[in-house]
Amino acid sequence: MYAEHQDIGVSQVAAAIAEPARTKMLCSLMDGHARTSTELAAIAEVSASTASAHLAKLKDLALVRLHVQGRHRYYSLADKRVAQALEALMVIGQNTAPTFKPHTPDRLQFARTCYDHMAGTLAVLLHDRLLDAGWLLETDEQVYRLSDSGAALFEALGIEVEDLSTMRRKFACPCLDWSMRRPHLGGSLGAALLQAALKRKWVTQDLDSRALALTVVGRKEIAARFGVVLASENGQIKRSQRSAAPTGSLITG
Question: Is 5's pLDDT higher than 80?
Fold first, then answer.
């Protein structure tokens, strides 16, 4: 009986998300910011009354949350699990429909959190650079290990590599990025890198958003340490994969 109820719940949620206007609304909310029904109607290209009906359906299924402030009513994703489900569907959707373009803000596609690690264009560039430089090494089991120089790179950031390797979760692994359709770095190492980036103010994150903003300091540090060069603090990519600083000259502190 419990399994039957689960099946019904899955089919109801799937049907709600499958409606194109609702999909546009949900994807637009993935940056973590709340929006009014009027704004969501414009995004979904439907009338105000149709948008209200869609939002009521999404609210009933606990996919969105309503916030009332005086006369204003705002909608946001119910919680991070909804965003994670949408990300997974985007990956599948892109595999079946290569021309699909997610209706998500540019800043969310550039850099954001994925579970507890970094995702987006910036994360994919860092992932590729780690491999190209030989700091991150692939194995035959869809997991990564660090070379000696790679371990020194992360330890210079204050990351205890040995401690991470003893955790129950995977140490380092590829995680498919829905916006880039290429892997970024997941696992305990990816999570530690995000925490180091936040602690050192390389990136900042709004309390109500999964989007990450690259700072001026972050742009300079990422260029110096990893050799990934970004043209400006807003994340515009100039070029990547220039020669990185030798391990012995990594900036610390």
Answer: no
175: amino acid identity, one letter: C
Overall size of the chain counted in residues:
253
With the CA atoms of 195, 131, 80 and 16 taken in that order, what torsion angle do they form, in degrees rounded to the nearest 10? Answer: 170
pLDDT: which is higher, 140 or 46: 46
The per-residue pLDDT for 100 is 45
Whole-number Å distance between alpha carbons of 231 and 236? 6
What's the half-sphere exposure (Cβ side, CA atoms, 13 Å) at 127? 29
Q: Dihedral of the CA atoms 208, 223, 115, 139 (nearest 10)?
A: 180
Q: Are 174 and 127 in contact (CB under 8 A)?
A: yes
Q: Which tokens hold the place of 97?
A: 């429909």
Domains with residue ranges and CATH for the chain: 2-79 (1.10.10.10), 106-249 (no CATH)
DSSP 177: E
Where helices occur in the chain by DSSP H, the ranges are: 2-18, 20-28, 37-44, 48-60, 80-96, 106-110, 121-132, 148-155, 161-165, 187-199, 216-226
pLDDT average, residue stretch 27-48 = 86
Three-state secondary structure call for residue 103: coil
